[in-house]
């Protein structure tokens, strides 16, 4: 009887370990600010949240909501494919169009240093 309870307990713990996520992304930066659209001639709000996926991968979600009901979101991935460049992938899904772009930034900085020394301020200064 004790042996059956022990086996059931071990299987239960193993199942919980398998069901839990392998790595949880942690939020490293959040900001909300007001923006003005020259395209729609109205104000709105822009929020971004950045998650650290791994040491060489950061993902930023940017949400835009205008007073006229238009909204959109961006997903920006910063990865380090080699020692001398950072790959920036931008996926845009908005009411006024969708796009997918990839850009390489040639630098020896880590993704962490690039984000917190430069890219964070670019996100905060975005206007629309």
How would you characterize the overall build of this protein?
It is a single chain. With 128 residues, this protein is an alpha+beta fold. It has one domain. It has two helices and six strands; from the N terminus they run H-E-E-E-E-E-E-H.
What's the short story on this structure?
It contains 2 helices and 6 strands. With 128 residues, it is an alpha+beta fold. It has one domain.
Distance between the termini: 66 Å
Tally the structural domains: 1
SS field, number of helical segments: 2
Strand order of the largest sheet: 1-2-3-4-5-6
The beta-strand count equals 6
Share of residues in strands: over 45%
Radius of gyration: 21 Å
Which of globular, elongated, flat, extended, rod-shaped describes the shape? extended
Order of helices and strands: HEEEEEEH
Structure classification: alpha+beta
Biggest sheet overview: 6 strands, antiparallel
Spans of at least 5 consecutive residues whose pLDDT stays below 50 are 16-22
| Helix fraction by DSSP (H/I, runs of at least 4) | 25-40%
Overall mean pLDDT: 84
List the helices and strands and how they pair.
Blueprint lengths: L1 H18 L6 E12 L4 E13 L2 E10 L4 E12 L2 E10 L2 E10 L4 H15 L3
């Amino acid at each position: 009887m004790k042996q059956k309870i022990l086996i059931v307990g071990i299987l239960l713990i193993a199942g919980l370990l398998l069901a839990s996520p392998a790595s949880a992304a942690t939020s490293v930066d959040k900001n909300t600010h007001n923006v003005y659209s020259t395209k729609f001639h109205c104000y709105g709000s822009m929020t971004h949240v950045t998650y650290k996926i791994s040491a060489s991968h950061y993902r930023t979600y940017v949400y835009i909501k205008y007073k006229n009901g238009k909204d959109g979101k961006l997903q920006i991935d910063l990865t380090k494919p080699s020692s001398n460049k950072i790959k920036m992938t931008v996926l845009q899904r908005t009411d006024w169009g969708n796009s997918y772009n990839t850009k390489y930034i040639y630098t020896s900085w880590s993704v962490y240093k690039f984000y917190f020394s430069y890219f964070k301020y670019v996100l905060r200064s975005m206007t629309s």
